[in-house]
Design brief:
With 88 residues, the protein is an alpha+beta fold. The protein has helices spanning 36-55, 65-87, and strands spanning 8-12, 19-22, 27-31. Helix 1 crosses helix 2. The structure holds zinc ion. The site of zinc ion has 4 residues, from helix 1 and helix 2.
Length: 88
């Protein structure tokens, strides 16, 4: 569930990417041959795409969704998770 919307997760054969989010179908597709350690980061990445679509950010003009998702995914979350661990 993301913002009250049920998003299905399907494992499927994907070419050229680890995962993708299909907003019209509310489906996250994960490549069926993903290495174990790539599953959670890929799912997190596609959940960010879903969140951007549901929140409407993806429909803004002059907007690079991939750059924003990667910023949150690879810059913000690692820092956030490190500080959470230190505070515990
Ligand atoms: Zn992406």
């Amino acid at each position: 569930m993301i913002a009250g919307q049920r998003i299905k997760i399907h494992k499927t054969e994907l070419e050229g990417c680890y995962g993708q989010y299909l907003h019209e179908k509310r489906i996250i597709q994960l490549h069926n041959k993903l290495p174990e350690h790539e599953i959670i980061p890929t799912l997190r990445h596609e959940m960010l795409h879903a969140a951007f679509h549901i929140a409407g950010i993806s429909f803004c003009e002059n907007f690079e969704e991939e750059a924003c998702v990667r910023c949150i995914d690879e810059v913000f979350f690692p820092a956030y998770e490190r500080i959470l661990k230190r505070l515990k």
